[in-house]
Specification:
Layout: H1 19-30, H2 54-62, H3 65-92, H4 104-123
């Protein structure tokens, strides 16, 4: 994992080359760990790590570079698909001149008018 694309990981100010290990260290140090049970204590103690809420887990997962990259890729695919649908709709609408560039809102408004015109033609 790189924090900055133009800066190598070994160049980190705190001297740690593995950023995942460093992040894990920060996460572990932020938890309060109970003291180890002493011998002869007679009681079994378990280590109580704080359970993260669903929202906290979601935030941590979304903070990773891998998740952000996958999300950006999905968003690009969605936008390309959206634009392709608008261009296909645009081809079906009659305009003068036929090659006139229309905005998305103009395409939608023209489609609404055209559909109502076709309904009117069918009703007559």
């Amino acid at each position: 994992m790189m924090l900055c694309p133009d800066r190598p990981e070994s160049d980190l100010p705190w001297g740690e080359s593995d950023t995942e290990t460093l992040l894990d260290t920060f996460n572990v140090q932020s938890w309060s760990m109970p003291a180890e049970p002493k011998e002869g204590d007679g009681q079994a103690h378990s280590v109580n790590l704080p359970t993260l809420s669903r929202e906290e887990k979601r935030r941590r997962r979304r903070a990773t570079a891998k998740y952000r990259c996958a999300h950006a890729t999905r968003e690009r695919v969605r936008v390309v698909s959206f634009n392709r649908a608008f261009s296909e709709l645009r081809k079906l609408l009659p305009t003068l001149p036929p090659d006139k560039k229309l905005s998305k809102i103009e395409i939608l408004r023209l489609a609404i008018c055209y559909i109502s015109y076709l309904n009117h033609v069918l009703d007559v």
